């Protein structure tokens, strides 16, 4: 028997209670992890079983290509395109705001700000993540929208512009914090080599640090996109709940999440086609967010730079 094995057996004999407690902790953690997995599996099973029942009554071609989404009307239509258009418009406006501001903030935190200031700013950004999105929603509706209505003719009270602008600031920390961590992970030797060749600070950031941290930056953008697609309260409060197949940002729209809020607060009987339409939208939203998360993981694995 090796010396290490003898030492391990001696430690176990001297600390029997410690070993038992560790086994109990491990068992407890395993049970909790199993409960989490089983709960997730149960949610997926219920979601897709109800969705399957929906598609037994509604053709997939109508779901994908019909221009209207009116499942609660007397003459129902089930075209998801109206909700997808609203979701992409709302998300796109948010990303237009969040991506440049987030990357500039990340560059400042990792390359320009002193360490103590960087830690404080990142702490403030993390606090911003904890602000309830219902607060952002009412801020967009009651403060941002009146200002935009005075600047943009024909802008409706509920619109994706104000909602998307505020969404951009809501998801800003997801991009800035993850991207700054990725940029800080770039070895200092690469920066020093660039400075030795006469590069300026801006050239180091744009031509050395950004390319070296590209996997983390892209992952941050994809995760923020997933977060934006799933945003509920800002869309429901400020963008509206009117499914409309349009790309005009002045119009009232509905996103997949805002429709779920609208339908979930109604009185549709369980098992009805209207209630199953709710599950079909939820399944579509689930597939989009899952796809973005998988893409983020694949990008990190494929393009991650490894340094000695």
TrEMBL record:
UniProtKB keywords: Cell membrane, Membrane, Phosphate transport, Transmembrane, Transmembrane helix, Transport
Q: Which residues cross the membrane?
A: 24-48, 78-109, 130-149, 161-183, 204-224, 277-296
- Work out whether the entry's keyword set contains Transmembrane helix: yes
**GO CC annotations on file:** plasma membrane
Q: Which SUPFAM superfamilies match?
A: MetI-like (SSF161098)
In Gene Ontology terms, what is a biological process of this protein?
Answer: phosphate ion transport
Subcellular locations according to the entry: Cell membrane; Membrane
Is Transport set as a keyword in this record? yes
Q: Which residues form the ABC transmembrane type-1 domain?
A: 84-296
- Bilayer topology: Multi-pass membrane protein
Q: Main localisation, per the record? A: membrane
According to the UniProt entry, its GO molecular function terms are: phosphate transmembrane transporter activity
> Which CDD domains does the record cross-reference, listed alphabetically?
TM_PBP2
Checking NCBIfam families in the record gives: phosphate_pstC
Functional description taken from the UniProt entry: Part of the binding-protein-dependent transport system for phosphate; probably responsible for the translocation of the substrate across the membrane.
For this chain, the family text in UniProt reads: Belongs to the binding-protein-dependent transport system permease family. CysTW subfamily.
- Record's protein name: Phosphate transport system permease protein
User: What species does this protein belong to?
Assistant: Meiothermus ruber
């Amino acid at each position: 028997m090796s010396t290490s094995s003898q030492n391990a057996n001696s430690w176990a004999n001297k600390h029997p209670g410690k070993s038992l407690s560790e086994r109990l902790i491990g068992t407890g953690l395993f049970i909790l992890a199993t409960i989490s997995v089983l709960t997730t599996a149960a949610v997926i099973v219920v979601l897709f079983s109800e969705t399957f029942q929906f598609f037994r009554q509604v053709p997939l071609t109508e779901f994908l290509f019909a221009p209207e989404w009116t499942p609660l009307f007397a003459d129902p239509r089930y075209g998801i395109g109206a909700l997808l258009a609203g979701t992409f418009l709302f998300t796109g406006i948010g990303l237009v705001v969040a991506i440049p501001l987030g990357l500039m903030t990340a560059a400042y935190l990792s390359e320009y700000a002193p360490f103590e200031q960087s830690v404080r700013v990142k702490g403030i950004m993390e606090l911003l993540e904890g602000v309830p999105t219902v607060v952002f929603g009412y801020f967009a509706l009651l403060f941002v929208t009146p200002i935009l209505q005075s600047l943009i003719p024909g802008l409706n009270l509920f619109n994706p512009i104000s909602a998307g602008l505020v969404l951009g600031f809501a998801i800003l920390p997801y991009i800035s914090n993850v991207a700054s961590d990725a940029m800080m992970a770039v070895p200092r030797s690469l920066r020093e080599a660039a400075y030795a060749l006469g590069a300026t600070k801006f050239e180091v950031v744009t031509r050395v640090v950004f390319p070296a941290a590209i996997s983390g930056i892209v992952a941050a953008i994809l995760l923020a996109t997933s977060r934006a697609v799933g945003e509920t309260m800002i869309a429901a409060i400020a963008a509206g709940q009117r499914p409309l197949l349009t790309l005009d940002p002045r119009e009232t729209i509905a996103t997949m999440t805002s429709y779920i809020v609208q339908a979930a607060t109604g009185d549709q009987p369980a098992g009805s086609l209207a209630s199953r339409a709710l599950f079909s939208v939820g399944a579509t939203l689930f597939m989009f967010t899952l796809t973005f998360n998988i893409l983020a993981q694949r990008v990190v694995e494929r393009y991650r730079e490894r340094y000695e």
